[in-house]
Fold this protein.
Amino acid sequence: MNLTQSALLPSSLPSGPRQASSGAHPRRFARLAFWLRQVVLALVLACAGAAPTHAAEITISQASIEASDEGYRLALAYSFELNRGLEDALSRGVPLYFTTEVQMTRRRWYWFDESSVSAARTVRISYNVLTRQYHTAISGQLQQSFSNLEDAMALIRRPPRWIIADNGTLKAGDVYTVGVRMRLDVAQLPKPFQVNALNNSDWRLSSDWIEFNYKPE
């Protein structure tokens, strides 16, 4: 549509004082500004991680199950370091999520193996730029604060023991195969970062599945 010169004349403007539009929708502008910051930060991190680097791997150094009055508790220990890309993302306010998955199966000679236990737990680590504190939370419940990254990572490398099954779930005397792995869970990242994470080797951080046998008494 072509604009004529008359459309720009002062006589075409409405009479009386004009309301400022900047305060009409403050919430909408705030949400827009938030998403713009997220997109810009995602682009910055994408450019920072453009150079090919070797993705660090997670090693499970300890895995065992013990019976308790509350149920069967899984004890785990991991060995790994954050690469430079992940440290940079964390320092810019991007939270990281580490999810541990566990599966227990019981072998049956007459049919397929029986799946007895299937569980997952996520540990979240984040950094507050204003307070310069690292925060960790286990499945949104147990929260702790740390003054440095190494102390915060210690909780992820050696998390508290975890009840994966109630008493009575497992049959005494039977042998169960336990499978465990931990991975950086990019599906829980803010939306603007998920596409970048899926295409960046820095974010492909995971352990292999390990297996061991457990026989409840």
About this structure: Strands lie at 59-67, 72-79, 96-106, 114-128, 133-138, 142-146, 162-165, 176-184, 210-214. The helical segments are 26-48, 84-91, 149-157, 191-198. The chain has four helices and nine strands. Confidence is low (pLDDT under 50) at residues 1-22, 39-56.
